[in-house]
Every structure is written in C-alpha cells, then in structure tokens.
Amino acid sequence: MQTTMIPAAPARLQPRGWQQHWREAIRDPRELLSLLGLDGLAGVSDAAAAQFPLRVPRGFAARMRPGDPNDPLLRQVLPLDAELRLVPGFSLDAVGDAAARAGHGVIHKYAGRALLVATGSCAVHCRYCFRRHFPYAEQTAAAAGWRAALDTLRGDDSLQEVILSGGDPLSLATSKLAELTGALSAIPHVRRLRIHTRLPVVLPERVDDVLLAWLSALPWPVVVVLHANHANEFDAQVDAAIAALRTCGATLLNQAVLLRGVNDTVDAQAALHERGFAAGVLPYYLHQLDRVAGAAHFEVPDHEALALHAALRTRLPGYLLPRLVREVAGDGSKRPL
Ligand SMILES: *Cc1c(COP(=O)(O)O)cnc(C)c1O
Ligand code: SF4
Questions:
Q1: Residue with CA at minimum distance from ligand 2 atom 4
Q2: Would you say residue 81 has pLDDT above 90?
Q3: In this structure, are 179 and 70 located in the same domain?
Q4: How far apart are CA 239 and CA 279, in angstroms?
Q5: Which of 4, 158, 199, 319 is found 20 to 30 A from 253 (Cα to Cα)?
C-alpha cells in the first residue's frame, strides 16, 4: 500500500541519468540519415544492420557533419552493403579469443594481465569491431556475481593487472562494478586496474558522480584506456568527462583503430592525437584492423600504415606518437608493425 505523503517530483526536475541517454540511442539507419539530411543515401544496408544492428547515442550523432556522407563518425557506425562481401582472410574469430579463454569471461593471453569480458553491451556499435561475431552472451564475466572470473583471478598469482573490457565495461551499473572491485581488493596479487572503454567519448553522461566516487575510492592505480578514432569525437562534454576522470587520479590513454576513410591520413592522425592531448589523453596504440568478416573495406594495407606512421613521427612530438601494432593470435603481446 502506498502511504507516503511526498509527491513525486515533476519529471522535468529530475536529472536525466546516463541510462536514459543510453536507451534513447538511434537504432534506425533511416532516422540517422534523416537527421543528417542524407535520406536515401546509396550503399546503406538493411541486411548488414540485421547482422549487427546500428546503434549510436544521440550526442555522438550530433558531432557528425550534416550533409556529409563521408563524415568520419558516420562511417564508423553506418551499416553498408560492403560488409556483406566475403573477403578471404577475414574471419569470425580473427584474434584467437576462442582459444585463449581461461575461465568464464576471462581472457589471459599476456604475462601479468588478464582481460575480463565484463559484458557484451556497448553504447555504440562500431562496424569494424570483432564484437559483431563474438559469442558474448554465454561468457561474460559479470554473470553469477563475477564468481567464475574471480576464481580464475584468485587462482593465478602471476596476475597483477585486471583489465575490464567487453563490450564496454562501463555499460554495467556502477554498483555491479563495485561488486567486482570489492572482491578484487581481497586478492593480494592484484596491483593495477585497467578499464577499456569508449563510453566517456560516445556517451560522456556515463561519467557521473556515482562513477567518480567509485573510481576515487579504488585501492589501486587505475588506467583508463579510451577509444576515439577521430578528433571530431571530442567536444566540450567529452573534455569535461575526461577531466573528471583525471581528478580521480586515473591515467588516461587512448587507443584507436586505423580505418580507411576515417583516420587514414597524416592530418587526421595528427589532429586526433593533438585533440586528445588537449583533453588530457595520451595516445597508446594505433591498431591495425582485426581481420573480422564484414570489416574488409576499412583495412589499410601494412605498407601504407607504416608510411603514415613514419610521416606522423616527423610531425608530432614523441609523446603524441601511438605505437602501431597488430594483434596476432598466439603472440605474447601486441605485435609492432
Ligand atoms: C590487448 C590485450 C591486453 C592488453 O595488452 P597491453 O599491451 O598491456 O595493452 C591484454 N589481454 C588481452 C587478451 C588483450 O587482447
Ligand atoms: S567493443 Fe568497442 S569497438 Fe567494439 S562495438 Fe563496442 S565500443 Fe565499439
């Protein structure tokens, strides 16, 4: 029975939580194109969208240039006919994740650090992502109160660093993350926490007071590795989110993927790393594309990637030069090109 005398606050006075921004993401390619004045754009594919649905937060879409079918942010999210082409060498498990799984949601490939597939969810769906095929539903680490993942981490005292990845680990509720870090803090060999997330860039509302309070209270040094591929992904709200993460003491890095038609020029790369630095982020990796089926049209050949990287070296200070790497199944680290 409802006994309270306090009336509910009018909806307009309630701050819109990040979950609401999440739910309001654009999911219909036609709506996105219409917002950008690009109705009827050729090459857009319902069949590709059926394989891996379009998903883009409205705030991210607002950073796309209206009327430009080649907008670098639009290209990252728009389902295209080109994805349906079968290209030799592009497969479903391009980075050997299926072979490296050590326990439920735990991928242990490299010395000293284990990666948790915390969740399969992402606020944005990036067309070039290996996630479009990975069978996440059955093996996320957050399932059953993180129990299987925690058992795996507890049982291997060589693991000093836990990397929260996914999917996007910040798509979980902060209380769910706190459940994990509370249990991790009782494991003496864990010394560092790393978070791989695109959310502060694509949905900066996620960096709210609850998240910041959790981060500030963690007992380890924290590294947040963001994922932005183009300078246009930054705006004032993203800058504010990054600044807030830094006030918690987190080290902020960025990893990008080298993508044809998005950031495959020296100018685009220089602008990305300069803009990131202005926001308080240092470049970490520039990844050669994982060769996942459906992403071949984004590939930049190695000789071109190397030439681009060499030109970038003559243009930027050393600390703004990302490491150009590829992930090779079975290797003990990312492989420099
Ligand atoms: C990329 C990756 C890491 C992190 O590697 P660093 O070189 O430390 O950034 C860890 N585990 C897995 C499975 C990875 O794919
Ligand atoms: S895992 Fe990262 S790259 Fe892949 S869809 Fe999610 S946000 Fe995009």
A1: 129
A2: yes
A3: no
A4: 5
A5: 158
Of 35, 61, 84, the residue at which a domain comes to its end is 84
**Ligand closest to the CA atom of residue 334:** 1
Residue 79 sits in the same domain as residue 202:
no
When pLDDT is averaged across residues 316-331 and rounded to a whole number, the result is: 96
Residue 216 forms part of a structural domain: yes
Q: Which atom belonging to ligand 1 lies closest to the Cα atom of 115? A: 11
Which 3 state secondary structure label does DSSP give 49?
A: helix
Greatest C-alpha distance within the chain? 71
The predicted model scores a pTM of 0.94
Q: How far is the CA of 257 from the centre of ligand 1 (A)?
A: 15
Q: Is 330 left (phi over 0), alpha (psi -120 to 50) or beta?
A: left
Domain that holds residue 294: 98-336
Confidence at residue 2, expressed as pLDDT on a 0 to 100 scale: 47
Q: Does the residue 8 lie in any domain? A: no
Cα dihedral 217, 222, 228, 232 in deg (nearest 10)? 50
Number of domains in the chain: 2
110: part of which helix (H) or strand (E)?
strand 106-110
CATH number of the domain that residue 197 is part of: 3.20.20.70
Task: Give me ligand 1 centre to Cα 284, in Å.
Answer: 12
Element containing residue 22 per DSSP (H, E): helix 18-23
CA of 166 from ligand 2 middle (Å) equals 8
Predicted pLDDT at 16: 81
For residue 320, the tally of other CB atoms under 10 A from its CB is 18
CB distance 328 to ligand 1 below 6 Å? no
